[in-house]
Design goal:
The protein is of the alpha+beta class. Helices cover 14% and strands 32% of the residues. It has one domain: Jelly Rolls, CATH 2.60.120.620. The protein has a seven-stranded antiparallel sheet. The longest helix is centred in the middle third of the chain and has 18 residues. The two termini are 29 Å apart.
């Protein structure tokens, strides 16, 4: 990726929208975020992806090598979080209102775990260890968006098989972010959510040959 100094160059006319999920909380959506998203996907899939050691992600992660254009992208993502997300979803930390967010890290992620191989913690909605999270969806094919839930009953001792994509007696589906190629989404990590992982692709070789790829942005106050 060092050969592509402008790989993460931003598109000149991105389209900003705000959606309310389940009428409860906002998500910031920016369509047409990158100018060269196909190049980003191709370059990302050449990187060494590894299973994370300390998080139950159902796939693999890859660090992004230093790239001059990534800084501009990170600054733009942080700008959307501060000007569009925080005013609509105030966040408090230790009792104090958070007035600004920064992007602490960005990496690439692929989901490639067969539904039968999931650990129990990977089969149910989760919250992130940070209050706000961002994704750029980098898939032309349908690889699913992001689903949001609320807990309506005590968590079961036994978790059903596969990825959870629907309501059940313990979690109610509130809504979702639709995945679109080259769409940036910024959402509250403290709301229960999961990837919308469904279809034949996650059960066969497609999950390796043409995986669900996202670029992740971790926000901190």
């Amino acid at each position: 990726m060092s050969d592509f100094a402008d790989l993460f160059r931003l598109a000149p006319a991105p389209r900003l929208t705000i959606e309310m999920v389940g009428g409860k909380f906002p998500v910031v959506l920016v369509d047409g975020f990158y100018e060269r998203p196909d190049n980003i996907r191709a370059a990302a899939l050449t990187l060494p992806f590894r299973k994370p050691a300390h998080q139950p992600y159902p796939g693999k992660l890859a660090q992004i090598p230093a790239n001059p254009s990534l800084r501009q992208a990170v600054e733009s993502v942080a700008g959307y979080a501060n000007t569009e997300f925080l005013p609509r979803a105030p966040i408090r930390q230790r009792g104090n209102l958070v007035t600004s967010l920064r992007v602490a890290d960005s990496d690439f992620a692929v989901v490639d775990m067969h539904p039968d191989e999931l650990q129990p913690v990977q089969r149910k909605p989760h919250v992130d260890p940070v209050p706000v999270f961002g994704l750029v969806y980098l898939n032309h094919e349908d690889r699913g968006g992001t689903l949001f839930f609320q807990q309506i009953a005590e968590e079961p001792e036994e978790v059903g098989p596969g990825y959870q994509t629907q309501s059940n007696e313990h979690f109610e589906l509130l809504g979702k972010i639709e995945a679109r190629f080259n769409r940036l989404a910024i959402y509250p990590g403290f709301v229960l959510h999961s990837g919308e992982i469904a279809g034949d692709w996650i059960k066969g070789e497609e999950r390796f040959i043409n995986p669900r790829l996202t670029q992740r942005f971790v926000f901190l106050p």
